[in-house]
């Protein structure tokens, strides 16, 4: 029986050895013990801890399994399962960027004190699909949404100056998420608002299939809360033609970690401009990391939003920990800026 304690970590010699021709079940159980998870998102630097495993000889053990024909196992499916598990364990030990596809659980606070649980699939990370990873600013914003949108400060009180807003007060809020990625923020908003909102999650063509998959993964929660969620492609670099009609615009636009190219501040604001409702209660809710390399883009975003006629209603900074690690294995703190924007005057 394989066992491990803090005092006596699991050693490679405690595992089923290939020369002994162990059963497929024993191999899969042993490989499950070796599974590593990325760091948990959060506001502390605590890592997710699994069984203590002595690293000596572990890479060789895994490569032996991968290179073995496993000819004593009865079915090809069982052999494939063992090879896949061994390959996954090897990938996990090559850093966060090399980890295989995974499903992750996120708990979303609500104003009632109950947590909603979202399950998100993240494909293996490559340089051309960074949008399929959940980033810490999305995590932080998803956990802040129930506070931010309960009763945001109003630039102009709802009243006689804006009859259209008053007459539409009972209609569901139309919300649009830009650069949804895995969908954490948009799905959180949808679950929190329930029947009070319709939410459209958008991203580039190569990201939308996984976004739609994550929406389907959470259908039970969305049905429970009465949420309406759709997904679709929206490329910020393309100007909508013809411009959206008034009834096609959105009351709330969400964006998390949207700036990672010099072009993005302009593209993002140019996308917000036609799609944001002109009502005085319209809001843009954004959160982005204050990484040194992208501070010029953050400043440009703020200036372009102001030039568009939007003003900050509320803002703040917070620090979270992404699931990356520094070279010494410690969690990396990420300072993020969140902001809520509204029209500075009736437009």
Automatic annotation (TrEMBL):
Pfam families xrefs: Methyltransf_16
**Record-linked Gene3D superfamilies:** Vaccinia Virus protein VP39
* A single GO cellular-component term on record: cytosol
Entry's Gene Ontology molecular function annotations? S-adenosylmethionine-dependent methyltransferase activity
Record-given protein name: Glucose-inducible SAM-dependent methyltransferase Rrg1
The species is: Penicillium canariense
